[in-house]
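Q: SMC domain protein, please. Structure only.
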Amino acid sequence: MLKRVSIQNFKSLKDVTLDLQKVNLLIGPNNSGKTNFLKALEFFDFSVLQDYVAAERQASNVRFMRSASSMCLELTFQREDEELVFLRRFNFENTVDVKSSQRNLKKGLEVTKNDEGYPDVLFLRRQLNSLRIYRPDPNKLTQPGPVGAGIETVNADASNLVGFLDQMLGKYRRTVFSRIEDDLHTCISEFDEIKLEDAKPTDELRKLVGDKSFKRFGLSNSSQGATYWADELSEGTLYFLALLCIIHQPNPPKLLLLEEPEKGIHPRRIREVMDFIFQLAEQKDIQVILTTHNENVLNEFTSMPEAVFVFEKDEEGVTRVKNLLKDIIEPSHQLSRETGTKEIDFASNLGENWMYGLLGGVPQENI
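A: Structure for SMC domain protein:
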């Protein structure tokens, strides 16, 4: 499990460290640095495990204020009884050309030694496999999509949902596909079946993907004998289906990054969505980092405030991050004990307390 992330000089993150849990929640106003934190994890994966040279070119564009002399990303993993620390450092004062970068960039990944020597970089590859920030886009789900073998992962924007569902129907009918249908019916009772049928793509789609077979999907109500195709469904329903597909992938990423899981979801269904996410983390042994602007999502973390991180920017545009338990609740209770004043009951309604500004992480009012 990813235990700790330390970031220096990445975009607005001048110097932040987060001690992570199994499921984590990042809260704060727009442009406070939540997405930058997720992008830093993506960039670490890209720079260490994918394209070293391209990462070196991009690094100067994502450094703090585009002026910092160095940038550092450090990931600490807990593996059984040992910690593995992976460090990626960029030094902008000593520039290197592309050839020497390609030859030497792997050395930019520093790892701490243990008694048995260096930790296994393959472990890092497994932990960050298929790392992406999921942002399902309902607008990309209404058109027919190409189908074919091998589509077993959902794209970051869920644009390949048709191909994914077709693959699940053919290969995982009794497991993955069935669970998606069951969970969909549990939360949206009017639908109990996912339908797929051959479809004709637009000329534009045909130009983009070439000579492939296309299908479209719809949701059916078997008792009424009615099927509603994707272009007839609400954005909320499409988003929810995409979320279920992400959650139920046969091999979900070990670290799942998901922005605003409440988007397009009715407030009464948020608890079910969060229950699915918590179940996913437990059953498939994966770690989840979520962002939200929704107080109902925050309420699902009432019993685990240590997993909530509050993001804000100071007057200089630097992101500051506080842990809800360690940096907000516990100091507040300590102050109450010292002054003999009544403690704030944060747990009674975390979301409401957040909206009132008691936790920080809310937009500043212009006076």
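A: Brief note, in case it's useful. Confidence is low (pLDDT under 50) at residues 95-107, 113-118.
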